[in-house]
């Protein structure tokens, strides 16, 4: 049975301009439960991450200023969120959810977080709606406990935006291989250097995208020999996305998930999936595309 991390704080109240993209955190579990893809037994409410969990990949001065509400106005604007205690509770709970998912996946093969993929958070700052880097912290947490048997981690970031914060955090750590396949013209304008970056032209369609992924990911599994994978399954690759410039359909997006998760299943490679971005005009396009990721996982490991 797959475990799915979800907490009410994932969708806490925000000013009007922020509410629309946050609705998916409420609607996605409702949709999965209503259609019978999952039951309430699949869902668990994660505990907030501890300071020690966060400090494995974040500067202590930044972390303490963040949780105390002491960021400068410039720093706060860069995150895209107005600071509040509820926002910090949300962020540390998301990070705690990805940590808990990692431990579950070690035992059961896969786990998913209905949030997370905060890949624009750097060691010492937040950017682009990301304050604490959950996948980076979870990867570092696994590597910090040799008894778990995780010595090499592969992070597969298929959000339309480059995982710049994650790339920077692990730029000098050979234990973590970062792979980002993203839109060349998308945010961030200044890219970092992942271990492998594939920057895609505007309008990249299903066939082109899937062929490139199929040509790349099996080779990485062979070369990197990871003990664990983190997968960022952003659905902002859709042609309908307001912030992306790629041309995938919902069918193509599901085929992407089927390919990535199918490889993990066949190779018995534990994987944690985090939802990432999705900003289509119609909420149904966002929720359905995200729901497909969970449907695929349930079909494989349910």
Automatic annotation (TrEMBL):
* Ranges that cross the membrane: none
Gene Ontology molecular-function annotations: histone deacetylase activity; hydrolase activity
- A GO biological process this protein is involved in? epigenetic regulation of gene expression
| Keywords per UniProt | Hydrolase
Record InterPro entries: HDAC_classIV, HDACs, His_deacetylse_dom, His_deacetylse_dom_sf, Ureohydrolase_dom_sf
Q: Which family does it belong to?
A: Belongs to the histone deacetylase family.
Among PANTHER family, the record links this protein to: HISTONE DEACETYLASE 12, HISTONE DEACETYLASE HDAC1-RELATED
How is this protein named in the record?
A: Histone deacetylase
- Organism this protein belongs to: Hymenobacter lutimineralis
